[in-house]
């Protein structure tokens, strides 16, 4: 029925407290998610 329709991109949001220094674990997790979503 909608053969030419393309699905919308999934949206992933990362919410964390705004701080100058994120813990290394949080920074690594955010970097992993950004790389996996590209």
Question: What can you tell me about this protein's structure?
Answer:
With about 40 residues, the protein is mainly α. It contains one helix and no strands. This is Transcriptional regulator, LysR family. It comes from plant metagenome.
Main β-sheet: number of strands, strand sense, barrel status?
none
Order of helices and strands: H
- The computed structural class is mainly alpha
The whole-angstrom Rg is 16 Å
Oligomerization state: single chain
Strand content bin: under 5%
Mean pLDDT: 82
Question: Could you name the ranges where pLDDT drops below 50 across 5 or more consecutive residues?
Answer: none
List the defining traits of the structure above.
38 residues; 1 helix; Transcriptional regulator, LysR family
Could you give a quick summary of the protein structure above?
By secondary structure, the chain is an all-alpha fold.
What is this structure's SSE topology?
Layout: H1 24-37
């Amino acid at each position: 029925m909608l053969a030419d329709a393309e699905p919308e991109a999934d949206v992933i949001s990362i919410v964390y407290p705004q701080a100058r220094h994120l813990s290394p674990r949080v920074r690594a997790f955010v970097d992993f998610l950004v790389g996996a979503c590209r």
